[in-house]
Amino acid sequence: MAITDPEAIKFVNEYIRPMCENVRYMGARGADFANKWAQVAGDFPNDPLETVEDGRENQGVSRLTGADINAVAGVFTLLLSEISGATAQAVISKPCVRPLLYTPDSNI
Amino acid sequence: MTTYYYYEDAVGSADGLSEANAYDGSTSTTMPNGTTNTCTFNNVVSTLLSGDTLYVKKSSSPISLTGSLVTGTNANDGPTRYESGGTQYGYIEIIGYQDTIDDNLRADFNFGGFTFRLDREFARVKNINVVGSYGGGMFRIQNGARIENSRLENTRTGSGIGYALDILEGFASRCELIGNYSTASPADDEATVNMYYDNGAIENCYIEARNGAHGISARRHALPILISNNIIVTNLDVDGSGNSNGNGIHAPNVLYHSVFTIKNNIIYNSNDGIAMPNTLTDNRCSLYVSGNIISNCVNGINVGDNINGPSDVTAFNVDDDLYFGDNFYHACTTSTTNCNSEINITVLSSDPFVDAANKDFTIARPSDFGYASKFFQESRGASGDTITRNALVNIAPFTTTDSGIFSLGTGGVGDTVNVSGRSYQKVSDTPIVWRVS
């Protein structure tokens, strides 16, 4: 039976399709992240005492450590493994309307 | 009514009266108004008399400003040049060139952190290529000033707004306007082009908001404005921040506008192609939104409730003068248009452009536009039988590089272009060969 409920159609067009485009973009950014992380991972010891000295505490911005960055990388990697497979990509791509303009690269 | 020359590589007397003796930017000499001063670009422009023309030749290094340059109004400025009792009247012109006068190639400028505000009536700037980083409007036109065939890029990414062009009662035509301002949530006034006053017009321009800002912000005008025949591209994510909320044309307080016309534009990759969010209670508008091609946007046209409200509900106080129609939509994620009164909506099922992702907005198949081809003016090649780029939207059928030189690496076989009054046709891709036609 066809789904004709206007609320359902609204949900598809205002939520599912845009969100799939966002997730697809995130997947592409994930590939970009992997390229870059492979180059800079060595700069971040997995150590909570190794702080990133970006001088931004006076802006109210959190001070990060090598362990924080490694933890983020771990979450990214886990998340990306879920959305980067061919099956998941196909699922996510189908509702997308617009072509993806973003292209991952290796530049830091 | 004197013609002056500015060329920073000149080695002559620097009296400014010929290319050989052009103002060189550093010599102390007689200014156009008779005073003596160092002939910097600022000083020369500031002392031009009504009716004067200043030709600016591209020099080996970009011309810089010595400070923000604001030209005030002048009682003698006007549309007609004449002299009365030795007093000059008329408009001033500042025209760039590279080799010969009127070759229509651009002179390079680097404004640094300064602004150039051209506020003289009927003043005209043509053929300049500017890079700068000013927090507000890097280049402003006011009081009827005009800018043509120029490229303005504001490289500022934050701390300010970063308009490439600020139109406060002026006219921009055939310009490339680039903004780099980076934002995830663009405010009403964060855009590559700002139109916030009266009687502004922009047409035949390429407008690019790279990192999440709006393409054009058009706010609260009491008098008419026109946005026509432009290509507006947003959210290219050049800085990799993932910002994607820029609208092509962002027009809050739209009901305050009087005769607001948006026609025949290409709007690409925006959050809302045209956004007209809820507004003030003023109702003085006429809105004409027609003939636009809106592609690759989340929402094509997104209007506030008070543009759709029934006329007998006082909270929605628009009851006439809304003309939305004959727009084209392609690949809009959520909706094409939510304007209830829009008519003749065409939804294209295939990409109307040859390669929009690489900024080639050539209409791939004019037949896609069906009945509209009867209404749109087609621009054709010199032979009269070749449909050129953007055939249905009369954007210039050629590309230019950053320094304003026609790029022979673009275009397809058979394309015909006009450069500096000469016509060329591409006859081969490999090797690239163009011939004079």
Layout: helices, strands, pairs:
The complex is a heterodimer of chains A (108) and B (437).
Chain A: H1 6-40, H2 66-83, H3 86-93
Chain B: E1 3-6, E2 28-30, E3 36-38, H1 41-46, E4 53-57, E5 63-64, E6 69-71, E7 82-84, E8 87-89, E9 93-97, E10 107-112, E11 116-118, E12 124-126, E13 128-132, E14 137-148, E15 151-154, E16 163-173, E17 176-182, E18 191-195, E19 200-203, E20 206-211, E21 214-218, E22 225-228, E23 231-234, E24 249-250, E25 260-263, E26 266-268, E27 272-276, E28 287-290, E29 293-295, E30 299-303, H2 305-308, E31 322-325, E32 328-330, E33 335-337, E34 346-348, E35 353-355, E36 360-363, E37 416-419, E38 422-428, E39 433-436
Radius of gyration of chain A: 19 Å
- End-to-end Cα distance of chain B, whole Å, is 37 Å
Helix coverage percent of chain A? 55-70%
The proportion of strand residues of chain B reads 35-45%
Task: Tell me the radius of gyration of chain B.
Answer: 22 Å
Helical coverage of chain B, percent range: under 10%
Distance between the amino and carboxyl termini of chain A: 51 Å
SSE series of chain A:
HHH
Structural class of chain A: mainly alpha
Structural class of chain B: mainly beta
* Oligomeric state of the chains in view: heterodimer
What about the largest sheet of chain A? Answer: none
Counting DSSP H or I runs of 4 or more residues, the number of helices of chain A is: 3
**Strand count of chain B:** 39
Unreliable runs of chain A = none
